[in-house]
Specification:
CATH superfamily of the largest domain: endopeptidase domain like (from Nostoc punctiforme)
Helix content: 25-40%
Radius of gyration: 32 Å
Order of helices and strands: HEEHHEHHEEEEEEHHHHHH
Shape: globular
Number of helices: 11
CATH topology of the largest domain: endopeptidase fold (from Nostoc punctiforme)
Strand content: 5-15%
Length: about 325
């Protein structure tokens, strides 16, 4: 095992598989017509048809894999993607999304609202009809999820709000890595906001404008809930100042930094240093008195100098 942090290994593996194929029962094996056919055998007709229909060769659309979007890609189902991603970080998970939820000694798990937004973990969808966890994905700690979404989608890299995730679970290994105290970390309920961009309107835009004005008082933007040119320019400057992608779109990464800032003001470089009390402008009366005393001292010094030059005479 490398010295790379557990979270980084899980995140890197998940991102490497974005664009891979989804096949029910696939276990990180290269997607080929032969492999698809083998996995289709023994499945219900509904699953078998999806496995076949989403292969250009097996469906009869073309004679080879040339040009297929899954050519040379691995294949997974949702639980196998999370299992292999976890293994990349040294975390052991069983097969099956519901088994992963019920059979693992997680450090912490619960409803999605309490999920720490800056911690890599696993997210689940609870099916009310079956009472089981029917889907699982890898939350990447930055507002995004990698999950093997379905036969027509493959492995996606999407905002956590793009799917109705209901629960989350944090492995012990990651908790030990990032710190066991999760109480001070921003949660999904606190940090979740819709992605907004130029042309957007509403309360989220007004909230954005207020935070940006607090970040840079020189902006003095009108807090009107309208994402116009001025707001767009301010967002780009904010993103550049915080090492974010400077596209002017306020998505999960930008919202996370903005909302942290709303709670804990930025301690970045300040253009104007705040004066301590002893450095502030003195009382005017005291300043005048000091000037008068300086003039008296100067007059006395001049008189002494003249007296010295004239041998003791003075005409001052």
């Amino acid at each position: 095992m490398s010295n790379t942090p557990v979270s980084d290994n899980i995140r890197a593996y998940s991102l490497d598989q974005v664009g891979a194929a989804y096949i029910m029962g696939a276990t990180a094996v290269k997607c080929t017509p032969k492999y698809r056919r083998a996995l289709a055998e023994g499945r219900s007709s509904a699953y078998a048809d999806k496995i076949i229909d989403n292969c250009p060769v097996l469906s009869g659309e073309q004679s080879s894999c040339d040009g297929c979007k899954y050519e040379d890609e691995l294949s997974f189902d949702c639980a196998q993607l999370s299992k292999f991603a976890a293994a990349a970080g040294g975390v052991k998970l069983p097969s099956g999304s519901n088994s992963q939820w019920t059979k693992v000694d997680w450090f912490r798990k619960g409803e999605i609202a309490s999920m720490p937004m800056d911690v890599v973990c696993f997210v689940f969808h609870h099916n009310d009809q079956t009472g089981r966890k029917s889907h699982v994905g890898v939350y990447l700690g930055d507002g995004m999820v990698a999950d093997a979404r379905g036969h027509t989608s493959g492995v996606l890299h999407k905002d956590v709000s793009s799917y109705p995730w209901t629960h989350y679970a944090i492995p012990i290994e990651i908790a030990q890595e990032v710190g066991l105290d999760m109480s001070e970390r921003p949660t999904y309920a606190e940090m979740r906001r819709d992605t907004i961009r130029k042309g957007s309107r509403g309360n989220a835009v007004a909230e954005l404008q207020g935070i940006l004005n607090a970040w840079d008082p020189d902006l003095q933007m009108k807090v009107d809930g309208k994402f116009g040119a001025a707001t767009h320019a301010a967002v780009i400057r904010f993103q550049q100042a915080h090492g974010l992608t400077d596209d002017g779109v306020v998505g999960p990464n930008t919202w996370t930094v903005l909302l942290r800032l709303a709670v804990e003001p930025d301690d970045g470089d300040q253009e104007h240093e705040t004066l301590e009390p002893e450095d502030q402008t003195p009382d005017v009366a005291a300043l005048v008195a000091d000037v008068n005393q300086a003039m008296v001292n100067l007059q006395m010094a001049v008189s002494a100098l003249v007296n010295s030059v004239k041998g003791g005479e003075t005409d001052v």
